[in-house]
Write a structure and sequence with these properties.
The chain has 263 residues and is mainly α. The chain has helices spanning 13-43, 53-56, 58-94, 98-113, 116-126, 136-162, 165-173, 178-208, 220-231, 234-262.
């Protein structure tokens, strides 16, 4: 039997009527704003076909897709490394030893509270004087992993705590060690239950990769900037990059919602 839980009690007829009115009013305001924007673009001559070469010229499309492939590579490396770091930090935070839990807690809380752009600047300008140099690609990946790994750590920690202790006890009763019980019983269940949340964090990683232009990575936003400088059509170039982000993030969000509803 399906049971739906809500934070607030359902509103009465008057409240529902006010919600409908507010929804309709908001839709009207958004449509009016969209009309004003389109009219302004038309007035500025931004709607003529020559301005939208970015969307149908093979050279520009190919250039943007090449940048988008770099974005996907950054995201793939960042997600894998962030998940691994998140698991390590989550296990360390749950460890009974303060030598493991305290440093892990400090690490997670520090990088969760730091602005992502500041982390990029620290990696760019703070590591070279210490003798640590790396290509721009790995500067971006490292910056993402430090922040996203802390986010994944909290997701994994919540998922591990959600697994009943009896699961571990059953594994120990069958002769497994604590580590074997965790790896073979607890962690797989936690990852399966956390799949929607992990996909949600993946969307965040993809959006953070758009700051790759700061370190000079030729990702899709950087490609859009170059395209805009070459054609003079910055609005269209950035809009094309935005469409690519929307398609990928919407697909991942859809997968997360399907996984959540199938549980």
């Amino acid at each position: 039997m399906n049971q739906t839980t809500t934070i607030f009690e359902p509103g009465g007829p008057r409240q529902r009527r006010l919600v409908r009115i507010a929804t309709i009013g908001s839709a009207i305001i958004l449509l009016a704003l969209a009309y004003v924007v389109i009219e302004q673009l038309h007035y500025e001559g931004q709607l003529i076909s020559q301005k939208w070469l970015t969307f149908y010229d093979p050279h520009f499309v190919g250039f943007l897709l090449k940048g988008f492939s770099v974005t996907l590579k950054v995201c793939a490396a960042s997600v894998v490394l962030s998940c691994l770091l998140g698991i390590v930090l989550a296990v360390a935070r749950l460890s009974p030893s303060k030598w493991a839990s305290v440093p892990a807690t400090v690490f997670v809380e520090f990088f969760r509270g730091m602005p992502f752009l500041l982390i990029i600047f620290v990696v760019m300008f703070g590591l070279p004087p210490l003798g640590i140099t790396m290509p721009p690609y790995w500067q971006l990946v490292l910056s993402i992993v430090l922040v996203a790994g802390s986010m994944f750590a909290e997701v994994f920690r919540a998922g591990i705590l959600d697994i009943p202790a009896g699961q571990t006890e059953a594994g120990l009763a069958n002769g497994l060690t604590h580590r074997q019980a965790f790896v073979s019983i607890v962690l797989p269940q936690a990852v399966r239950n956390l799949a929607p949340a992990l996909l949600s964090q993946t969307v965040r990683v993809i959006k953070e990769s758009s700051l790759g232009y700061v370190v000079g990575v030729a990702e899709v936003l950087n490609s859009a900037r170059v395209t805009g400088e070459f054609t003079g059509n910055f609005i269209q170039a950035y809009l094309a990059a935005g469409v690519l982000f929307i398609v990928v993030n919407s697909t991942i969000s859809y997968m997360g919602n399907r996984l959540a509803s199938s549980r």
